[in-house]
Design a protein that fits this description.
Elements (H helix, E strand, L loop, with lengths): L8 E6 L8 E5 L2 E7 L5 E5 L13 E3 L2 E3 L6 E2 L5 E3 L16 E5 L2 E5 L25 E8 L3 H9 L4 H4 L8 H5 L2 E7 L2 E11 L3 H7 L5 E10 L3 E10 L14 E13 L2 E10 L6 H31 L12 H28 L3
Antiparallel strand pairs: 1-10, 2-3, 3-4, 5-6, 6-7, 7-8, 9-10, 11-17, 12-13, 13-14, 14-15, 15-16, 16-17
Length: 356
């Protein structure tokens, strides 16, 4: 069974990545060429010229669309061929697939399936990218050589923080293992919350807020299928009693967006942004926040790439679930259910079109 939902939105790029040059990117095994047309609007077409199978992203953007760098054939944002040098006749097969694409919250979103079915209301909302006064942020992208689901599993089980990320955002392994956890299924994924009460602040928190003693620390994550995670995390002095509804102000707070987008069956694009919520008037603090998060994500990359290699080398070896896997398991079931439902509809549609 395919591991990809087709009729949904995937992050394809940061808006700032698209300038006057085309961008080639593989999304769920599909080669995609992204570019801005003459009006500045983003377009996305198959990254393969139908003439001689050269990537269109190696070409250039022209007034009419994207020009293949091999023989100068031009395609518009809908994938239609609009010019072939040296001839007026354009063969009917001289076209490329196009994708529905939207730019929102500093992100370029791509609908992987039928453009006619693209539902703009399903695009993930991330308004904090637009609130630069309260949540200044910095964006990043890391290539990871693993199945995208492995990396999502990693983020959805944060008990690993005390072991893998002890030097930055981790903290005590015991505090993570004994965290108060709540998991809720949602229509499009799963939400889970963790509280580490009366715990020692980890190194990143100490650098940011200079806590004099123990803190109450929260981690709130929402995974929206197919592959986006919205995270809000922070901590305040225990005297503020944040867990029972007290103030979350004055300590450490950070928002992280994770978009783990499949590239191939064994590689993925890890888009992320880090927003500083405790010293917003100081641009250096946003850089410090990013500088603390980035190495933790590289540590995740090392773990997940090792996991991918061992799974590939020993595909018949079983794995065991433990208590902290609850949110991950809910997500996997949701993802598998949506993929199965989509494939069942495709099969039924194909059967209806087959001759009796």
């Amino acid at each position: 069974m395919s591991s990809y939902i087709k009729n949904d939105w995937y992050m394809a790029a940061w808006a700032g990545e698209l300038t006057d040059q085309p961008l080639g990117r593989r999304i769920a095994n599909e080669p995609v060429c992204l570019f801005r047309d003459a009006s500045g609007k983003v377009a996305a077409v198959e990254d393969r010229c139908p003439h001689r199978a050269v990537a269109l992203s190696l070409g250039k953007v022209v007034a009419q669309g994207i020009e293949c760098g091999y023989h100068g054939i031009v395609f518009d944002g809908k994938g239609e061929c609009v010019r072939i040098p040296g001839q007026s006749h354009i063969p009917s097969k001289a076209c490329v697939r196009h994708y529905a694409v939207e730019e929102k919250d500093s992100i370029v979103w791509l609908w992987l399936g039928d453009p006619a079915k693209a539902d703009r209301s399903l695009i993930v909302d991330y308004p904090w990218h637009g609130d630069t006064k309260k949540w200044p942020h910095k964006e990043g992208l890391i290539p990871v050589a693993c199945d995208y689901r492995m990396l999502l599993d990693n983020i959805m089980d944060l008990t690993h923080l005390g072991y893998v990320h002890a030097r930055t955002i981790g903290g005590s392994p015991g505090a993570h293992s004994n965290a108060l956890m709540k998991t809720d299924r949602t229509e499009r994924g799963v939400k889970f919350q963790r509280w580490l009460l009366d715990s020692m602040p980890p190194p990143t928190y100490l650098k940011a807020a200079n806590f004099p003693g123990h803190i109450d620390r929260w981690q709130e994550l929402e995974l929206i299928t197919p592959c986006s995670i919205i995270q809000y995390t922070g901590g305040v002095d225990v005297a503020q009693d944040a867990y029972h509804g007290g103030s979350r102000e004055g300590g450490f707070a950070m928002r992280v967006l994770h978009c783990v987008v499949p590239e191939t069956d064994t590689t993925c694009h890890y888009f992320f942004s880090v927003a500083n919520g405790w010293a917003q008037d100081n641009p250096q603090v946003t850089e410090i926040a990013y500088g603390q998060v980035y190495p933790t994500l590289i540590e995740d990359k090392v773990i997940c790439e090792n996991q991918q290699k061992l799974v590939a080398d020993f595909p018949d070896r079983e794995t065991v679930d433990i208590k902290s896997d609850e949110a991950r398991i809910v997500f996997r079931r949701q993802l598998d259910r949506r993929i199965a439902e989509e494939q069942a509809l495709q099969a039924a549609s194909g059967a209806a079109l087959s001759p009796a």
